[in-house]
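We append the chain.
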Amino acid sequence: MGLVSVQTQRAPAAVGPYSRAIQAGPWLFVSGQIGLQPGAADLVSADFSAQTRQVLANLGAILADSGYALTDVVAVDAFLMDLGRFAVFNEIYAAFFGDHRPARAAVEVKALPKGAQIEIKCVAYRA
């Protein structure tokens, strides 16, 4: 089984020495995304909700350009600077995933790249 690095213009470039996502057989491992717009070096906004929506849009673009659907996502890890925003995160997350409910962890962290307020990574599986 070979590893394939995912390339897409619809999600921001990696901010370090890593791939946006790696496909390994039927599995897709999507690296943590922050609220950068594709082609931009800065966060979409300082607003938590705007960053969360952009992060999920980035994840969606990477999944779609890799041939995966949101319903293929099996696990999500979210890193929030402030768990006091957990309810806002849940509302935006639920709207994005609809009735699909992957396994998930959400934890508070001390800092994220570029001063982001949220970072999300996921794993998808396509049979």
